[in-house]
Amino acid sequence: MTACPCDSSRRYAQCCGPLHGGTPAPSAEALMRSRYSAYARGDAAYVLETWHASTRPATLALDARTRWLGLDVRRHEVSDADAAQVEFVARYRDGGAPAVRLHELSRFVREDGRWWYVDGDFPSAHTDRQGKGAG
Question: Of 22, 81, 90, 119, whose CB neighbour count within 10 A is largest?
């Protein structure tokens, strides 16, 4: 059984796997989780494919030395039928460096029945080194 990167209690084949295979995400939170899993699996194409065209970068290079360590979804708020926000904290480590916490409040829109990542704000002014007063 291969655990899903977004939630170790679920199998990848029943969690993010179908979304990576082309099934539309049923919610903004599901899309955010699938994007985290894509980062963890090194799938830059999926990350770009799920980024809204108005904010999508032309290219995305993922560093193979980055190890994604965990995801904590703090809040999923639906603003209306076609807009939502997801607040999360993702932990990762670059090479042998100390672990880092990435705290983001992401914005999503639904167009033609499909959810898209638009952009995000970072509630903390910087990412915090784990264990260094991160809150």
Answer: 90
